[in-house]
Structure formats: structure tokens, C-alpha cells
Amino acid sequence: MSNPDSTDLEALKAEIKKLSAKATQAKMDLHDLSEELPISWETIPSVAQRAHDAYAELERKRALLKTLETA
């Protein structure tokens, strides 16, 4: 594997920043839902799945960045 150039790393860092904001919003949505229970209780699975997916994607990209930075 060739070393990534700084442009690739910067693009990945920018993507991680956006994913972090998305994950934070998903966390807040889950928090807000929990405070409003039992109103909208039926949305728990979908809101939780969005939060789970956002954090999973964020962690994958952070792991990739760490790998690329140490390569």
C-alpha cells in the first residue's frame, strides 16, 4: 500500500468531522426521545439504529485514519 498524501488525509479528516457532527446529532435525538417517553415510544428502534449506525461509521473512519497515519 502506498503512503496516502496529505490531501487524502485531509479529506478523510473532513469526512470524520462531518460524521462526528452526524453522530452527535443522532445522540441528541436519542436523548431527546428518552426525555419525552412515553411519547413516540414506537420510534425507539429507528432512532437508536440511526445513532448506532452513525457511531459505527464514525469509528470505522477513525480506525482507517489511524491506519493511514501510521502507514
Automatic annotation (TrEMBL):
Keywords: Coiled coil, Nitrogen fixation
Transmembrane feature ranges: none
InterPro entries: Helix_hairpin_bin_sf, Put_N_fixation
Coiled-coil region(s): 9-68
Gene3D superfamilies with a match to the protein in the record: Helix hairpin bin
Keyword Coiled coil assigned: yes
Entry's family note: Belongs to the UPF0437 family.
Protein name: Rop-like protein
Origin species: Aquabacter spiritensis
Lineage of origin: Bacteria, Pseudomonadati, Pseudomonadota, Alphaproteobacteria, Hyphomicrobiales
